[in-house]
Design a protein that fits this description.
With 250 residues, this protein is α/β, with parallel strands linked by helices. Helices cover 42% and strands 13% of the residues. It is built from 8 helices and 15 strands. Strand 14 and strand 15 form a beta hairpin.
Length: 250
């Protein structure tokens, strides 16, 4: 029990730069408290003391804002950052070294008995507000973007974004995400198929920026091959305000 608690606290230091001291994490991190309560509640649940398990789970929810059903199977070193509004259903299975942000739901889509909640394999990261619904599997080291709604399996190592969630696996989509990060604005969790005109406009800008960078790099290479001198300032590129796109969107 105490060994698991030490692991939980160390996982906070590994994944949260705001964590400063052991005592602060032990007393002020609701994710740690929720895991302690869940382990006790799960022990009661598996020993057929189910009312006591549910009551302890209910108390944990009251004090932490994190609702974990005592029947859920939770692996080692689960890190719940902030945690408010996290819901983990009865038949959910969470692997080792998983990270959940606030507002995440591991929910069911059926009233039938049996497995009806998701399975998260080792190293999965679920962004704030994401909903993972049904008896699906999120593969090892996969990532789910903020506010995504996932109702189908996500392969190991993949990234799923949007509502309904889609897998970012195309070269253009990967370039778009990279360019968005460079400009200080992330299009993460915006699906290109959405009807939102703002999302389409942002995607168009990012795609255009990728193409302009490609053409500029090609032009500089051709000039260099032709022996044409290029001023160092031109070769270095222009400075770009990292808040520019954010200001446009606001």
């Amino acid at each position: 029990m105490f060994g698991r608690l030490r692991e939980d606290i160390q996982s906070v230091f590994d994944r949260d730069p705001a964590a400063r001291t052991f005592w602060e994490v032990l007393t002020c991190y609701p994710g740690v408290h929720a895991m302690v309560a869940h382990r006790l509640a799960h022990w009661l649940w598996t020993h057929r003391l189910r009312w006591f398990g549910r009551m302890l789970s209910h108390l944990g929810r009251f004090f932490t804002g994190i609702e974990v059903h005592p029947g859920a199977t939770i692996g080692r070193r689960l890190f719940i950052d902030h945690g408010m509004g996290v819901v983990i259903g009865e038949t959910a299975v969470v692997g080792n070294d998983v990270t959940l942000y606030h507002g995440v739901t591991l929910g069911g889509t059926s009233w039938n008995k049996g497995r009806r909640h998701p399975t998260l394999e080792d190293g999965v990261v679920i962004g704030a507000g994401a909903k993972i619904l049904g008896p699906i599997t999120i593969g090892a080291a996969a990532k789910v973007g903020s506010n995504a709604v996932v109702v189908k399996d996500v392969p190991a190592g993949a990234t799923a974004v949007g509502n309904p969630a889609r897998i970012i696996d195309g070269e253009q989509a990967q370039k778009r995400e990279q360019m968005a990060g460079q400009l200080g604005f992330s299009a993460y969790a915006l699906g290109g198929s959405q009807d939102d005109p703002l999302a389409k406009a942002v995607h168009g800008l990012l795609d255009h920026a990728v193409e302009v960078d490609r053409r500029f790099a090609l032009l500089l290479r051709k000039l260099d091959e032709a022996g044409v001198p290029v001023e160092s300032e031109l070769a270095a590129g222009d400075e770009f305000d990292p808040q520019y796109l954010s200001k446009i969107v606001d």
